[in-house]
Design goal:
The chain is an alpha/beta fold. It has helices at 9-26, 41-52, 80-87, 109-123, 159-165, 184-189, 203-211; strands spanning 2-6, 31-34, 62-65, 67-69, 99-100, 128-131, 153-156, 178-181, 192-197, 229-234. It has a 7-stranded parallel β-sheet, covered by helices on one side. Helix 1 packs across helix 2. The protein binds 2-amino-2-deoxy-6-O-phosphono-alpha-D-glucopyranose.
Length: 242
């Protein structure tokens, strides 16, 4: 795992965006695995700015998002599809038909997950997977568990994740209790993984990911087995690493 240490969130965002931009420049038809949350927002802003300056062409790019709340349709402002449309897809020249997010409006979990897996398999998985990390070490919505879940699956969100994500809802009661998430396999099949982390709240999860045992109780720790991972993290997020 290569570690790029940055002074703060802004510098982290610039470094993450630069790697994604380089990926698109080198391979215009790149398949990108994308993440939601506060962490990638700055990088998305940088990518939008680069596009507006004429430096980045998304016309051949396709994207596959990690996860979606079960029960939310794409026109719900709390959905991850809405988040991606708002912060990235509507701001660049990407073909919206080439942007993919698990279908939260499909309440048939088995069907929703199987069809997302078929899509990922048909795509041959992604060239670059962008990840944030949950305070409890989750990636996507792969929560701490007794085993690593391989395929796309429906998860019951942990109390700590509901609490952490409630800042984006009116109250914790409004946070959906379940989500569909890409499994560990599709994440590990990405040719390159870029993990972004910022702030002291992520420090323990970052330490466990980089230096702890490879264990499903910290899902991000599986990334120690991936041959091409770049962690871009600020001083605060790296503060517990040796
Ligand atoms: N499912 C998402 C993850 O993909 C994200 O990495 C994590 C951290 O979010 P944030 O970047 O807002 O801290 O939260 C959510 O639960």
């Amino acid at each position: 795992m290569r570690i790029i240490r940055t002074a703060n969130y802004e510098e982290m965002s610039v470094r993450v965006a630069a790697i994604i931009a380089a990926q698109i420049t080198l391979k215009p038809a790149s398949k990108l695995g994308l993440a939601t949350g506060s962490t990638p927002l700055g990088a998305y802003r940088e990518l939008v700015a680069a596009h507006r300056e004429g430096a980045l062409d998304f016309s051949q790019v396709s994207t596959y998002n990690l996860d979606e709340y079960r029960g939310l349709s794409g026109d719900d402002p709390q959905s991850y599809r809405y988040f991606m449309d708002e912060h990235l897809f509507s701001q660049v020249n990407i073909d919206r038909a080439q942007t993919h997010v698990p279908d939260g409006s499909n309440l048939d979990a088995a069907e929703a997950c199987a069809s997302y897996d078929r899509l990922l398999e048909a795509a041959g998985y992604v060239d670059l997977q962008l990840l944030g990390i949950g305070n409890n070490g989750h990636i996507g919505f792969n929560e701490p568990d007794d085993c690593f879940a391989t395929g796309t699956h429906c998860v019951d969100l942990t109390e700590s994740t509901i609490e952490a994500n409630s800042r984006l809802f009116e109250s914790p009661d409004d946070v959906p209790r379940q989500a569909y998430t890409m499994g560990i396999q599709a994440i590990m099949f990405a040719r390159r993984v870029v993990v972004a982390a910022s702030g002291t709240k992520k420090a323990e999860a970052v330490r466990a990911m980089c230096e702890g045992l490879v264990t499903p109780s910290c899902p991000a720790s599986i990334l120690q087995l991936h041959p091409d991972v770049i962690l871009i993290a600020d001083e605060e997020a790296l503060s517990l690493c040796h």
